[in-house]
Amino acid sequence: MTLAKKILVPFGILIAIWGTLSLYLLFQFADRQRELSRYTDTFLEIHDVNHELANRGRHLETDLLSYALTGDAHMLPSIRSAEAAERVLLEQLSTLTLAGRGKELTEEYIRSRDKVRDMRVQAVEAIRLGDKAAAGFTLDKWMILTRASQAKSEDVNKYHSILLGQHVENGQRLMQRAMEVSTFFAALCILLLLIFSFYLRSSLIRPLAELTRQVRKVTEGDLHIFPAGSLGTDEIGQLTSSFTEMTAKLRHTYRSLEEKAERSAGELAVSQEQFTRAFRDSSLGMCLLTPEGALLEVNAALARMMGYAERDAAQVRPLDIIHAEDQPFIQEQKRAMISGLHDAIQVEVRLLHKRGYAFWALANASLVRDTQGVPLYFIVQVQDIHRRKVEEMAQSEFVALASHQLRTPLTSVRWTLGRALRTLRGKVDDGDMRLLEEARRATVNLAGIIDAMLTISQIEAGKVTVRMEDVCVRDLIQALREEFSGPCKEKRLGVRVDIPPTLTLCTDRRLLRECVSNLFSNAIKYTPPGGSISFEAGEKGSDVRITVSDTGLGIPMHQQERVFSKFFRGDNVVMHEPNGTGLGLYLVATVVRLLRGKATFRSREGEGTVFSILLPKEWRDH
Amino acid sequence: MAPHPFPFMPQPYILLAEDDLTIGEMMRLTLEESGYAVRSVRDGAETLAAVEERAPVLLFLDLLMPKKDGYAVLESLRESGHAFPVVVLSNLSDDRSRQRCTALGAASYFVKSNMDEEALLDLVKEYARRA
Lengths: 622, 131
Hints:
The complex is a heterodimer. Chain A is an alpha+beta fold. Chain A has helices spanning about 5-70, 75-95, 100-130, 130-220, 235-280, 300-305, 310-315, 325-340, 385-425, 430-460, 475-485, 485-490, 510-525, 570-575, 585-595, and strands at about 285-290, 295-300, 345-350, 360-370, 375-385, 470, 495-500, 505-510, 530-540, 545-550, 600-605, 610-615. By secondary structure, chain B is an alpha/beta fold. Chain B has a single domain (about 15-130), classed as 3-Layer(aba) Sandwich (Rossmann fold).
């Protein structure tokens, strides 16, 4: 049964009862009222008639008495008419009388009036006949009967007014009864309402309260709810049973999720354990740093490397153990990684051992971010490369020194020859002059070879570490132009630089300079006097392209594939410029490879050459 | 004799700091023949003494010298301050040397074996123009 029925049916019953009772009472009342008004009308009529009769009676008395006194026969018609009227009235009265005692009394009264009339007639007769004795006698009797009749008239009136009073009283009593009944009914209704409310309570309010209680339990997190009592089949019952079902399902889901989470946590714990062990037991020094540079974790290997006991290592401030000279560079690298320029770096850096000395270390650092890209921490792996570095540096120093030692006498020879060529001009024959000139050129060549070999040996030994920085291309090339201004002027070569001043790329400055310098010196070497060299640079996608073009001798087609090989020199240039190293372009190729770029060229013999190097704008780790 | 480019300064001279005899001699001859007053010194201490005595208008400075090397000279000059340009002429070509000299205030840096002695004259003219 639905809620609607549950509520409407009792309600309907209540209304029906009330309606019926009300109508019944109404009809009853209406009936009684009608009766009462009927009675009242009758009573009023009777009263009027009686009153009229009394009036007539009094007139008749007066008339008779005056006739008796005067003996005037002119009184007789009025007496007669009065008597006629009396008769009519008495007839009327008799029709009006109602059953019961009233009728009795009225008939008695009528009879008494008749008797009075009779006596009156006799008296009139006596008076008319002049029988004073009989007149007197009949008049007395008539007087007595009149008084008796009056009394009877009063009885009738009294009786009828009593009756009326009784009816009115009845009416009042009826109303009182009606009020009692309605009061009773009101009480009944209240009782029924109370019953109804009890009924509602069990049928509606309690189930709702129960449901609310369960919902609150679930809201607080307790999914263990069970229906209290039996559920009805109405909407609330359905709601409650659905809710209970839903909660049961939720409970199961929750439980299975908990199990899954436990499992995952277990798996995670295992993998975390593996990672932690890998970190802790690694023979490679490792540490975790916050993005601000504070130490999160440090493993035993690194602590040992730095000369600290493992428990002390955690207190060390990373910045304190980096050599002062290397700190700015490291800070820059850190900033570059946080800003997203590099994901990972490899640097050689000097660290300070606990005992106070510095040693060279190779540090690989990468930045770990969360899913939103926010930096979480740096993972840094450190290797002690001090011995290797020292050896390298010794080796480099040797090479540098050796180069220097080679260069010093070379400078002497070159400058001496240069000077000799000036001072001996005109004093020595052309043949000798030419030889001197050749000799001078050979020294230039030799200088170039020393330079090239120095650089190549460093690169090939892997001793050249790339130090990235933002390089302004135009500035670099302008500096080179100034450096080579002498040779350019000597050969009257026009140099043009067509590079936007804002063009920058992230690369190793000196290596880039070395590259472009080689291309420049090649261009100078292989361009006949009066020619021109131009530099251009621009962005090409995510790369920067730098081109060096000349109006020089060019490279023969059939030899173009060997251009970048060691000690290659084109057949055509050997004639014109016997003093080439053959190493310059090899150097360019090696350096460009180191800088993760590409070197290409276009050339036509006798017209000129265009060398291009393409370098990534940002340093990316592949 | 070419007119020297510093006509309004009292006896301006170029200071040459070079320990190698031949090279030093070469430089001196080249410059003097073009009309410049030149003074040659052979080590770092002499260089600083000469500067203190009377500041040159230009200093060509070698790096590897006895007593005090070119770096020490540069450091000292930077400390005491100098109005004249210092051009480093060395046979070290490595980047570190170059950077270090630049950081210490050298106006420019050249590798001797990579230039002709005439380039000296161009340099002098260049710095005279800038002065």
